[in-house]
Amino acid sequence: MSNPFAGTWTYRSFLNDPGLVGDDKDKLYHLLFAEGVWTVEDTPLQDSEVC
């Protein structure tokens, strides 16, 4: 069975500020808290016995 989450995912976290950004790219930039890339590898499942 293949892992449905396998692949490369981009993560972004923003500060919780209810103010509108509008067309101001600088305001949007300052809301960005963190970002990263998360990679999930598709590995085969191993058969295991339930005791």
TrEMBL record:
Protein name: Uncharacterized protein
Species lineage: Bacteria, Pseudomonadati, Acidobacteriota, Terriglobia, Terriglobales
